[in-house]
Specification:
Shape: elongated
Number of domains: 2
Number of helices: 12
CATH superfamily of the largest domain: NAD(P)-binding Rossmann-like Domain
Largest sheet: 8 strands, mixed
CATH topology of the largest domain: Rossmann fold
CATH class of the largest domain: Alpha Beta
């Protein structure tokens, strides 16, 4: 069985990557094998995307060219034992799969210790990948070739942008872009709540909040303005915006976001040690 991409874990992020890769025809359904412990999720992936599925992690490792780990970091050690190259099931030891991990906190050194001679790449995508608007940071291991790196970059480009960072920055990436969608979701929810408090109907308040955040992000991206420049353009002397900004400053809005990123970074580091 010739499998080009094996995915261990068919949950939210595993399915997000799978859906985009199939939709953009980077892989044909018959070239993908997904290992997933939940029977209902296996059925869903098989029916929705036409890929092959199994509950056997070792079977995926035995036949894949690229092995994508999309599991919880808490179960890494148990799964890694099944997937290690010495499991005896791969007929050609010279054709070991590239291991790509999207596990928060699991370092390259831990991956390389677990998978021996196999090249490993650490990646941190985020949930906007499900709509092709994600951003992924990647850090290659010591034995990754240029062609292998290019192949893995193409996988993550199918779900958004890709940046290469040093391994030492991956926990910080996790704290910012990995966890960041949750912070933004809270921001949008709070803006909508503020609109309701000010008298707007919930549906209109939610639409205004969502469109404002989306439009502002697009404006910053396309204009290449610094966020402070855009803020200053919207803020007139003695006006409504500066009144709102002053209240945000009194409430510690900036410091709360900074501390959230730092707390998530620290938790990522702890997960890697556990």
């Amino acid at each position: 069985m010739a499998i080009k991409l094996g995915i261990v874990g068919g949950g939210v992020m595993g399915e997000a990557l799978l859906s985009r890769l199939i939709a953009q025809q980077l892989y044909r359904p018959e070239d993908v094998l997904v290992s997933e412990p939940q029977a209902h999720q296996r059925d869903l992936l098989s029916q929705k995307y036409g890929v092959q599925v199994t509950s056997n992690n070792r079977a995926v490792a035995a036949v894949s060219d690229i092995l994508l780990l999309a599991i919880k970091p808490q179960v890494f050690e148990a799964v890694a034992i099944e997937l290690a190259e010495d499991n005896g099931e791969r007929p050609d030891k010279e054709l070991l799969p590239v291991v790509v991990s999207i596990l928060a906190g699991v370092s390259l050194s831990k991956l390389e210790a677990a998978f021996g001679r196999q090249p490993v790449i650490r990646a941190m995508p985020n949930t906007p990948a499900t709509v092709g608007a994600g951003i992924t940071a990647i850090a290659p291991g010591k034995t990754v070739s240029k062609s292998q790196m290019e192949q893995v970059i193409s996988i993550f480009q199918s779900v958004g942008e890709v940046v290469e960072v040093s391994e030492s920055l991956m926990d910080a990436v996790t704290g910012l872009s990995g966890s960041g969608p949750a912070y933004v979701a809270i921001l949008i929810e709070a803006l909508a709540d503020g609109g309701v408090a000010a008298g707007l109907p919930r549906a209109i308040a939610s639409q205004l909040a969502l469109s404002t955040v989306l439009g502002t992000a697009q404006l910053l991206q396309q204009s290449e303005l610094h966020p402070a420049q855009l803020k200053d353009r919207v803020t007139s002397p003695g006006g409504t915006t500066i009144a709102g900004i002053a209240e945000l400053e009194r409430a510690g809005f900036r410091s709360a976001l900074i501390e959230a990123v730092l707390a998530a970074k620290e938790r990522s580091r702890q997960l890697g040690q556990g």
